[in-house]
């Protein structure tokens, strides 16, 4: 046969290629049976039949089944995607803001919530209980160190001094939908409002008040003004508080202000020392004064008693003098001499004509 002659002169790879082509044409080169097609006699006939075999019309049933399978696969993918994106689990400290084609439709609370599949409805979870903070005038890096942020905390005090205020604003999200949609950048809006409130309050206080005694009042007033600004804008934020961290002048005049502060501290220390000394000495002085008053009162009473006794004795002597003036006068004279010259022997000459003496000590 022609095919056998052809195959004799071919290598193994060419033989396998020709055998496969013949098998597609329905030609069995080993055994011929009754159903085999007519064996072509020439090589041209063989390749003509092969070209016709490759140009057979497509199988419509096969294409239908293939399209049906693709539809089933696509529908399954869509169904699975819908099931996966039609529910959300919201944490206990969060709210889920649901938008339909970009428009806010509702806000869901904590727990399991359902929605239309993505991209029909999209849910964004927002924490509404977490206390967040904004640092103004400084920034805390990853290592926990504070770095100054220039020109963010400048303010003008009442006495026309430039002062730098480092403070922290604490806030939380009260309305998740307003927080997301009322303003483009709510955190930046909160920061700008805090700067405006702090500068307004600082303009009504002197530098000394800001740096020393008036810090608590400045914090409270700035917090009140900031709440009013945020309530007026109504973008879903609740101000928790403002903490004033540091008040200092610009770096260019820091040394001069430090000298002033040292002088003020020394002044305050001197005043405190004087106050302490006064508090120490005043009770002592009051005690001594009270003691002097008591001694004076006692001396007064003593003198009164002495005077009362002298008056009584004088009245008794007067009574005796009225009864016997000469004898009383002599007795008083003798008693006076005893007081003037105590312990001395005293003699009294009673009669000028004689030398009779009277010893007063006997």
Structure explained in plain terms:
- The chain is built from 10 helices and 13 strands.
- It has 362 residues and is α+β, with helices and mostly antiparallel strands.
- The strands form 5 sheets. Strands 6, 9, 10 and 11 form a 4-stranded antiparallel sheet that branches. The chain has a 3-stranded antiparallel sheet with strand order 3-2-5, with no helix packed on it. The chain has a two-stranded antiparallel ribbon with strand order 1-4.
- It starts with a helix and ends with a strand.
- The model is unreliable at 1-10, 31-41, 52-56 and 353-358 (pLDDT under 50).
Q: Would you spell out the secondary-structure blueprint of this structure?
A:
Elements: H1 2-8, H2 12-25, H3 43-54, H4 60-85, E1 87-90, E2 94-100, E3 103-108, E4 111-114, E5 121-127, E6 132-136, E7 138-140, E8 146-148, E9 154-156, E10 162-173, H5 176-181, H6 186-202, H7 207-211, H8 215-233, E11 237-248, H9 254-323, H10 325-340, E12 347-349, E13 357-359
Helix pairs in contact: 2-3, 6-8, 9-10
Which descriptors would you attach to this protein?
alpha+beta, four-stranded antiparallel β-sheet, three-stranded antiparallel β-sheet, 10 helices, 53% helix, disordered N terminus
């Amino acid at each position: 046969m022609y095919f056998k002659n052809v195959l004799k002169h071919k290598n193994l790879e060419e033989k396998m290629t020709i055998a496969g082509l013949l098998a597609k044409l329905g030609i069995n080169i080993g055994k011929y049976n009754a159903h085999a097609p007519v064996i072509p006699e020439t090589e041209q006939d063989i390749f003509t039949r092969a070209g016709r075999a490759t140009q057979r019309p497509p199988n419509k049933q096969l294409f239908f089944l293939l399209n049906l399978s693709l539809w089933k696969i696509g529908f399954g993918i869509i169904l699975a995607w819908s099931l996966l994106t039609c529910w959300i689990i919201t944490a206990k400290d969060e709210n889920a803001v649901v938008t339909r084609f970009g428009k806010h439709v509702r806000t869901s609370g904590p727990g399991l919530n359902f929605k239309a599949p993505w991209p029909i409805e999209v849910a964004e979870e927002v924490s509404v209980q977490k206390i967040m903070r904004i640092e103004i005038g400084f920034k805390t890096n990853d290592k926990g160190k504070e770095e100054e942020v220039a020109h963010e905390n400048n303010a003008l005090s009442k006495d026309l001094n430039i002062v730098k205020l480092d403070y922290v604003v604490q806030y939380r999200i009260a309305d998740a939908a307003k927080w997301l949609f009322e303003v483009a950048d709510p955190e930046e809006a909160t920061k700008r409002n805090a700067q405006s409130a702090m500068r307004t309050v600082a303009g009504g206080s002197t530098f000394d008040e800001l740096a020393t005694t008036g810090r608590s009042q400045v914090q409270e007033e700035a917090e009140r003004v900031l709440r009013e600004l945020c309530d007026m804008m109504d973008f879903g934020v609740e101000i928790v508080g403002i903490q004033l961290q540091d008040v200092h002048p610009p770096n260019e005049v820091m040394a001069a202000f430090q000298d002033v502060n040292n002088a003020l501290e020394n002044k305050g220390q001197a005043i405190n020392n004087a106050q302490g000394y006064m508090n120490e000495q005043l009770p002592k002085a009051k005690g001594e004064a009270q003691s002097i008053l008591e001694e004076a009162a006692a001396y007064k009473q003593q003198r009164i008693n002495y005077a009362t006794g002298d008056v009584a004795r004088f009245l008794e002597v007067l009574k005796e003098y009225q009864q016997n003036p000469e004898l009383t006068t002599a007795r008083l004279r003798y008693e006076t001499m005893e007081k003037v010259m105590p312990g001395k022997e005293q003699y009294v000459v009673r009669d000028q004509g004689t030398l009779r003496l009277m010893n007063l000590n006997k």
